[in-house]
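Aim 2 progress update. The chain analyzed this quarter is reproduced below.
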Amino acid sequence: MKRRSFIAASLVAAATFPLMSGRAASATPEELLKPGPLPEISFGSADAPVTVIEYASLTCPHCRTFHVTAWPAVKEKYVDTGKVRFIMREFPFDPRASGGFMLARCAGPDKWYPVVDLLYRSQDAWARVPDGVAALKSLMGMTGMTGEQVEACLSDQALLEKVTAVTEAGKAYGVDSTPTFFINGEKTAGALTVEQFSSIVDPLIKAGE
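Predicted structure tokens:
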């Protein structure tokens, strides 16, 4: 099978969650913020006293839990008020997650977040169904993307390699599960609740004031 058709072909089978191992590494906040091969997806003020980087997979139930139950409150309380800069990065665990992130990128900068939000909230409708391509075509139709455009996006080898490069960079910093957060450079793994998030960032915000 040619690599170019790998994503589209792999999406036919149900997603699995392989254990990924990353090389633990110590990284400074400056190293973590080095630009990668894809434009950074960032929310909040660049001058915020706290910077959070999240590595997530679209097929990960724990990532969905954080996105649906905690992220809205985190965004309102910290990001929209200029206290936290929040960066979202791709860390797909399987071909379906890679495909979902590719579609979000193909949708364009203005639609990246709406597509990711849609895919998280409809995770059960595409991540573990028999035909992932058909499911994604149906969902992406809601965003205005045609079936042909979905196929073309999933066949974009250059884009796949960039998504993979973001993942590999995360592994180099010790990411081996999702979601994983780097909060001012300190690694925290797991789907944080709003209360847990606050307990970490509040002292950092106070120290930065």
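The two ends are 55 Å apart (CA to CA). The chain has ten helices and five strands. These observations will guide the mutagenesis experiments scheduled for the next reporting period.
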